[in-house]
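User: Quick sanity check before I run a bigger batch. Here is a single chain. Can you write out its predicted 3D structure?
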Amino acid sequence: MGGMASSTYRSLLDRDLGVIRDDVLRLGSLVDEQLQASVRALQERNLDAARQVISADERVNALRYKIEEECLATIATQQPAAGDLRRIITAMHMAVELERMADHASGIAGIVIRIGNEPPLKPLIDIPRMQVVTSEMLQSALDAFVRMDVGLARATVLRDDEVDALYNQVLRELLTYMAQDKKTIARAMYLLWVAHNLERTADRATNLCERIIFAVTGELGDYKPAKQPPSPPGTASNHD
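Assistant: Done. Predicted structure follows.
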């Protein structure tokens, strides 16, 4: 490949990589909006807002498939190698993970609708905290993707421990509520399902980071901290 041809190839590949990167960022931003909106709908008992989260899932799905098509087209037409190919493969995997994170947000919104106008079991404290940390993990993962920053990706993975600790706190207290009063079981289970969706969303944020590490280093691995089992019921404090 001559110098001019090589320069043109690099320019076309960089253009395609830029389009893919921008669409991944757009998808990540949309997913974060959905995640925040779903928990806000829970806090405000806003059924209309919950329905909007669910209806917006079609936009997420469409953008995911657009990214996958762009990646496949770039591989077919540009025949990228080494690091460029890993970046494209990483973008494809991230699109799938982001779409599934949006599914968790839709799951939370569906729970809000099922709760309906039932009185809240208790004030929400740890569940909104779980959402904040998860959103921060998502934003850090997207930043690491743009910068191809292995250090930031690894640091973001470690924050999964924070979400797990909050989830275990939620689980302990809700189990205590259910043990003390069987009438609270249904409402407690709704909140537990919300917390589980958030915990899984944080897990998927770590998956994003693992793919970014692969894009830079070529090494695939599980960098998540070991999951700690929840403490037994009866040790809860005033959290959700």
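Residues 3-217 form a domain with the Methane Monooxygenase Hydroxylase; Chain G, domain 1 fold (CATH 1.20.58.220).

User: Great, the batch can go ahead then.
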